[in-house]
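I hope you will forgive my troubling you with a question about protein structure. Could you please explain, in whatever detail you think fit, how the structure tokens follow from the sequence? Thank you for your consideration; the sequence and its tokens are set out here.
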Amino acid sequence: MAYRLITQVVVVGSRVLGRAFAEAYKQAAASSQYQRAQQKNGNAATGRASLTSGMTLDEACKILNVNKPADGTAANMEEVMERFKRLFDANDPEKGGSFYLQSKVVRARERLEAEIKPKMEEKQAEEEVKEGWNPKIYKDR
């Protein structure tokens, strides 16, 4: 009689684990399919940043209380860094803050940096091309 009970527990347990693994696989497949679709649509930077930080651009903007970066300007980055420093210090665990909130603030900054920096670099490259190449010539006396 005990062997029947043990066998039944093993069978039911394996069914539960099998279903859990199947569900986890479905979720992972759907997530990777979504990321591939994002990259195909031209949101490659968005997809990469979302993968690394696990946060959307809207969520990052809400956490740091900044507007969405329309164009990658230094002013946007300065505002992001200002808000980041203030919120990071306010949520310091040694001062009674929350480590979880502090990590969310860090992830939000990383997400916004991933969005703004490529635009800033592109702008700088365009400005350099516009100005032309001006080598520095050193004259001896």
Remarks:
- Helices lie at 2-40, 44-53, 57-64, 74-90, 99-131.
